[in-house]
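[agent] plan:
  1. take the single chain provided in the ticket
  2. run structure prediction with default settings
  3. attach structure tokens to the ticket
  4. add a short note for the reviewer (M.T.)
[agent] executing step 1
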Amino acid sequence: MKNVTISLDEKVARWARVKAAEQDKSLSRFLAELLEERMRHEPGDRAEFLQVLRSVKPVPLREPGEKLPTRDELYDRKLFRR
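[agent] step 2 finished; step 3 output follows
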């Protein structure tokens, strides 16, 4: 386990000390668990992302035998023009 020093606004520090005491935990343990929980819900886990990416079925751009769309057709912005 790594020791770190953090600076908190007095109001935030007071709130954190109260919450930690309510859960019968040290401030250090309370903040560590809070950060661990946040980390688990943070997007960006590469393995999880790759698993989701691999589970998505590809969408064909055209039907078999059909000609590919031109660049102009792909980037047509008529809907955004007035």
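[agent] step 4 note for reviewer: DSSP finds four helices and no strands in the chain.
[agent] ticket updated
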